[in-house]
Amino acid sequence: MSNALTNIEGFTIRTATEEDIPLILRYILELADYEGCKHLVQATEESLMESLFVKNQAETLIAEYCGEPVGFSMYLFKFSTFLGKAYIYLEDLYVTPQWRGKGFGKALLINLMKIAVSNDCTRLDWGCFVYNEPSMAFYKQLGARELTEWADFRVDGELLQKYGQSV
Questions:
Q1: pTM for the whole structure
Q2: Is the dihedral of CA 29, 146, 75, 61 positive or negative?
Q3: Where is the N-acetyltransferase domain (predicted)?
């Protein structure tokens, strides 16, 4: 999928393929390192292959400049029961440090907005660590609003297994 969203000659966004698994994992690790939580990453090439290309649990886009990968976004469709329609949840957006500030991150977000509109989705949501001030400033500069009416919750690890395996 070529990207006509920017005036940057040579910039494209394409759907990831199985051959991109090592690149996707590299970007996940770089993003986790940037956010100070690399120790939490459990993803492997095998788990990404299974989740992305066998079970189709998420979609991944690769941003390229003159044929060189410069970033990625990973998203999935969710559903709003209140609205009765789907929306897109952006799991990750990452542009490598040397390519930041060139409009590639904005182009990835706009591309996701176009995907949302073309799929009759109601919105595009994502989370951001509150200490990630550069990213928060970037999102707010685009006009995104910070949600304060929701608190995130999680069940994982042993507790998830305990209840998920109960009879």
A1: 0.85
A2: negative
A3: 11-165
Taking Cα atoms as reference points, which of 111, 11, 114 lies closest to residue 69? 11
Catalytic site positions? 139
Please give the radius of gyration of the chain, using alpha carbons only, rounded to the nearest integer.
17
What pLDDT, in 10s, does the model give residues 1-50? 444 455 678 999 999 999 999 999 999 999 999 999 999 999 999 999 99
Burial grade of 26 (CB within 10 A; 0-12, 13-18, 19 or more) = middle
Mode of pairing for the β-strands spanning 85-95 and 124-126: parallel
Nearest to 120 by CA among 83, 148, 91, 151: 83
Number of helices and strands (H, E) in the chain?
Answer: 5, 5
* Residue appearing with tokens 């042993």: 158
If you classify domain 11-164 with CATH, what class do you get? Answer: alpha beta
